[in-house]
Specification:
Radius of gyration: 30 Å
Distance between the termini: 78 Å
Largest sheet: 2 strands, antiparallel
Shape: extended
Number of helices: 10
């Protein structure tokens, strides 16, 4: 479109915007996107809680360093506020350096308590908002309110994914083919939405800590000869498929209840999605890959058989 409309194929922001507008005008049946205020609020709240989580890690690191100097040999790997209070109450330094160190540690501990209170409040709000949208992602083992909120906020309309394979490609849990010759192998994909990939990793690790079907699946993959990381990637792909099925089920349930929601469980969605394939009219039931291309080359004619040249007879 850029070449036909402008006469050249030079790529600039202005030409891209103009070409996109021309495609939108000339193409019928495009899915109309609508701003979902609830999803935007959910996204803001998730990012706020992630920022609080990073802040908490920094505070705990500083507090552990101070307590290690005040109480050598008594450092805790996973320090909690209760442990920090008990450790800080058991030390009474006499020198000025020790007193200053204890005072700074007390301030860090007070800040840690405040940050954890904000995190708890944000988690409660996320849980209420996820439940209000009618999502059942939290029924999956390892998927809590924070993980479910991140998935909902980033996925938006699940109808834009034709099937679980494209969803797995978007989440970065689908391996890439790296086969060569007779060697059939796959490698880790670094593409996709890394934030959603991270929360799926959290769900996978949580399932491994509990007696769940995910841990049994992981052990079966290990018994088949896969390495721990390879088995974990298989589990992440399986969780991605489970999340996709749950999103589709929630969307179908919302549509059946007459909430004027589309296949993605959000208002304004339709059965066609321009993001489901390279063509804007790709339907959600289309296959992820096209079939073999039709043959366009003419069959090569067999070579003609030529008679061997006659040997020249010598002249007398």
């Amino acid at each position: 479109m850029r070449l036909f409309d402008t006469g050249h194929n030079r790529k600039t922001d202005a030409h891209d915007a103009h070409s996109i507008a021309m495609v939108a005008v000339r193409t019928r049946g495009l899915r109309v996107l609508q701003v979902d205020g609830e999803l935007e609020a959910l996204r803001l709240l998730v990012e706020r809680r992630e920022a609080l989580t990073r802040r908490r890690v920094q505070i705990v690191d500083r507090l552990q360093a101070l307590l290690a100097e005040l109480l050598p040999g008594q450092a805790k790997k996973d320090l909690t506020t209760g442990q920090g209070k008990r450790m800080l109450a058991s030390v009474r330094p006499r020198d000025i350096a020790g007193k200053t160190r204890r005072r700074i540690a007390a301030e860090e501990l007070s800040e840690l308590v405040a940050v954890e209170a904000k995190m708890k409040k944000a988690t409660a709000e996320l849980k209420a908002m996820v439940a209000a949208r009618g999502s059942h992602l939290t029924d999956i083992h390892g998927v809590g309110p924070v993980v479910a909120a991140r998935v909902l906020a980033d996925v938006g309309d699940v109808a834009r994914f034709a099937d679980r394979n494209r969803f797995a490609s978007w989440t970065g849990t689908a391996p890439l083919d790296a086969s060569s010759g007779e060697q059939n192998r796959h490698r880790l994909s670094r593409a996709g939405n890394r934030r959603v990939n991270h929360v799926i990793h959290i769900a996978a690790v949580t399932q491994l800590r509990l007696d769940t079907d995910g841990r049994a699946y992981f052990r079966r993959k290990r018994a088949e000869g896969k390495k721990p990381l390879e088995a974990l990637r298989c589990l992440k792909r399986r969780i991605s498929d489970t999340i996709y099925r749950q999103l589709v089920a929630d969307a179908d349930s919302a549509q059946a209840q007459g909430t004027n929601a589309g296949p993605g469980g959000h208002r304004g969605a339709s059965l066609q999605s321009s993001a489901a394939g390279s063509h804007p009219h790709t339907d959600t039931s289309d296959q992820p890959l096209p079939g073999p291309a039709p043959k366009t080359l003419r069959p090569t004619a067999p070579p003609r058989k030529t008679e061997p040249a006659k040997r020249l007879q010598p002249t007398g």
